[in-house]
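From the shared-data thread, chain only:
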Amino acid sequence: MVDTLIINNDTMEWLKHNNIIGSVIIGIPDISEIGISDINKYNDFIDKLFQLIMSKLKNNSFLIVIYTDRYWEEHNCIKLINKSTFILTNAAKYKMNLIFKKIIINNNTKYNKLKYLNYSNILCFKKSSCNFTLPKSLQTDILIPKEDDKLWIKGFYVNIIELLVDFLKINNVKHISDLFCGYGTVLAVAKKYNIDSFGIELNKQIYNEALKILKLN
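Structure, as tokens:
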């Protein structure tokens, strides 16, 4: 039987007191989603987040990071928020090996309106070891999301998550954690692939909705 668990908690606080089980798929929260308007404070948040994640991962675990860089207006100046710098700096510090990088083409026009770049990034790391099997489905640098392929209206594109979960399963991952799980797309796909999963969601309303969607309440 597959074990799926979601908790209503603050990710940063949880990480300070707990170790991560298994491998991680994480979508980095946008600056607009965490109540921070100052770029320096947001950069500090990203830096501390990945320090915690990478220090709590066990050897031979995978870390898959999904994020979209964007422009942000601050003091009448438009600046690019580039998350890669903080992720890669901490990866080197904690001996995380970058094993693949992919680009997701964002066809949705909302990205331009919100000053997002028209593509998202996927970085996949493995701690301590570089041994892995890459399926044919991921032997391309560009991934195309299916616009109508969502489990629910606010979910992430299922076909992209399925590729990533399938990769983890091929590499004998038995447990997946999503530290900002939202409505639970990663957990739903993990369940479909018979992999145990764990998610954290701070927003109580979204957490309760995820419980309903995943039939955990």
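The chain has a mean pLDDT of 87.
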